[in-house]
Amino acid sequence: MKNEEMVKINFLEDESIILAALGVKISQTPFEKGSIKELYQECLANREEAKRLVNEIMRKHRHLILADFLPYAITLENISRLAAIYFWRNVNANNLVFGAGIEASLRVIKPNRYNQIVSDLGKTVFKIYQKAINLGVQEQDARYLLPEGTLTRLIFSAPPRYLIKMAHSLKNAPLSELKQIGEKIGILIKEKFGLEIPKESLPSQWKFWSENCSKEKIEEKIYFDYNGKTHSISLNMRAKGSLAMYAQLVRQRQILCDIEPLEKIAKKGSFVVPSSFPEELRKDYKKIAKEAKRLQTKLIEKRDPNFVYFLLMGQEAGAMIYGKGFPIIETSRARSEGVAQWEIRNKVGIPITEELAKYQELRKEIGPRCWREKRCIEPETFKTKKAICKAFEKARGNWQGTLEELLETLREPSETFIV
To answer: What is the domain partition of the chain in residue ranges?
Structure first.
């Protein structure tokens, strides 16, 4: 379905826990089941149930970001996936921007809208996406086919200073959608709080164009420093992975992810292929990728930043990942789990865990839960997804082997192709 509306941006004020409940609904509710406004009305109609939901999720699944919400939030409906990932990468301790937020999860929600700019490609891709689902490919892999012009929605809560800082950054981006979001957030904060906060620049930003950027080829490698205390850990990591993977990584607010210029990603034309894709779907993927790159190139030649909407979520990008202190341990725990998405596990979680494992005193703090705690939540997490963690399949949640053997069991093959 083509959607020609611009991003709808609103400011909500309510109890923090109600806004957190709205975030849960945004994350899990199919787009066709109602707008953000309608989901909010559902929370208001049954406030006690909304509160129970939030507490249950924090207690059961430890999604503690729900406790970071303030009694107000910005909501964005019909934001492109590209604009969403650009938005999240700014929310980071290394950028001195703090806040809480949740986006619609394309791991569980079927996309049904796209930016009008990708109209013809969008129609084709959505048909192939549905074909992938019909073939039994999980949503988390099928999304690799989707263009970054696919529309999503999110909620974000942060102190006024950081909202204004975000607004300044977005207003200076080349893309009109990002400019619009930045302008509207700035207006809303001034109206609601009466604050005229001086401009603060972010220490880092993603670049659209390649000028004045390093020509160095990014090879996967970890630069690691540890001086005997957890807070001394320092990580500089070179990685390569899909934009779908980075969309997950940038939501981890303590680790900064800088990808190479978007123009360079487009021109390189490299695409990550999930191992779950059957041969028939791989052929379709290559056709989509070839057409997407043609459209990207055409717009780049015109110096039109809208080329970013034609990037596919499976398109590969080189990146630098920076982290400091305990968030590195948290990354090892969360991203090397068997229930973590396969690519972020292969490209980020496992390599970081292997590096940390060189230090004997850290070995019992890192890695998957079945290694650290000798227990596993895999069946509960995926009881409706029909996906079984390989380590759970092998040991039924009672892993007795070494950490190295566990990590090797959790690895999954993948490949790339270039058009």
So the answer is: 2-193
Neighbours of 33 (CB within 10 A): 12
H-helix or E-strand spanning residue 327 = helix 326-335
397, 406 contact by CB (below 8 A): no
pLDDT of residue 375: 83
Q: Which residue shows structure tokens 């208001």? A: 44
Where b means 16+ CB within 10 Å and e means fewer, 356-372 reads bbeeeebbeebbbbbbb
CATH number belonging to the domain at 2-193, selected among 3.20.20.140, 3.10.450.540, 3.30.1360.170, 1.10.10.10:
3.30.1360.170
Closest CA relative to residue 398, chosen from 373, 367, 375, 366: 375
Locate the DSSP E strands across 130-287.
151-157, 221-225, 234-242, 256-259, 270-273
Token pair recorded at residue 285: 């993927």
- What is the per-residue pLDDT across 252-291, written as a single tens digit (0 to 9) for each? 888 999 999 999 999 999 999 999 999 999 999 999 999 9
* pLDDT of 252: 83
What CA–CA distance (Å, rounded) separates 352 from 333?
10
